[in-house]
């Protein structure tokens, strides 16, 4: 497998040369071309490949790395999560206190309203009794 590859950019490579270029076996190149996973040219009974098509196939096989956070990152995220949970609890407690204050104010306002209505009724009743 120590043949040299052609220097021309659009030169056609044989199955053996394509296998050497991709660093795989000849049978895998044949399988990939039969499965139409690599673009190829057929001249008579021979199969040939362009280097650009092999590069394109090779690029499709690339697998991107997955970010694996370190332990310190996870500890940082955990401490941020705990801090946010504490803030949520604090805000919830403040909201409960504010609701209680609103209820108290509404209760006072409703008492005042009732008191005003009663005074109006008392005045009306007193007017009726005066004749």
Description:
By secondary structure, this protein is mainly alpha-helical. It has two domains: 12-60, Arc Repressor Mutant, subunit A, CATH 1.10.10; 85-131. It contains four helices and three strands. It has helices at 15-22, 26-34, 51-60, 71-129, and strands spanning 12-13, 41-43, 46-50. The longest helix is centred in the C-terminal third of the chain and has 59 residues, at 71-129. The chain starts with 11 loop residues before the first strand and ends with a helix. The mean pLDDT is 87.
What is the strand arrangement across the widest sheet?
1-3-2
CATH topology of the largest domain: Arc Repressor Mutant, subunit A
The overall average pLDDT, rounded, is: 87
Number of E-type strands: 3
Contiguous runs where pLDDT drops below 50 for at least 5 residues: none
Q: Categorize the overall geometry.
A: rod-shaped
Count the DSSP helices: 4
Biggest sheet record: 3 strands, antiparallel
**The CATH top-level class label of the largest domain:** Mainly Alpha
Q: What share of the residues lie within helices?
A: 55-70%
Q: What is the second-level CATH architecture of the largest domain?
A: Orthogonal Bundle
Q: What would you call the structural class?
A: mainly alpha
Rounded to the nearest angstrom, the distance between the terminal CA atoms is 128 Å
Report strand %.
Answer: 5-15%
Tell me the domain tally. 2
Radius of gyration: 42 Å
Along the chain, the helix and strand elements come as EHHEEHH
Question: Which features would summarize this protein structure in a list?
Answer:
131 residues, mainly alpha, Arc Repressor Mutant, subunit A, 2 domains, 3-stranded antiparallel beta sheet, 3 strands
């Amino acid at each position: 497998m120590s043949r040299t590859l052609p220097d021309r950019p659009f030169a056609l490579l044989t199955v053996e040369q394509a296998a050497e270029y991709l660093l795989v076996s000849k049978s895998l190149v044949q399988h990939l071309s039969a499965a139409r996973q690599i673009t190829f040219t057929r001249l008579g009974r021979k199969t040939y490949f362009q280097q650009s098509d092999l590069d394109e196939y090779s690029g499709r096989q690339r697998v991107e790395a997955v970010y694996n956070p370190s332990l310190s990152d996870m500890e940082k995220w955990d401490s941020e999560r705990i801090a946010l949970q504490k803030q949520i609890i604090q805000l919830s407690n403040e909201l409960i206190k504010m609701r209680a204050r609103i209820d108290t104010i509404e209760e006072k306002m409703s008492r005042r309203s009732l008191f005003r209505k009663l005074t109006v009724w008392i005045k009306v009743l007193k007017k009726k009794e005066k004749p």
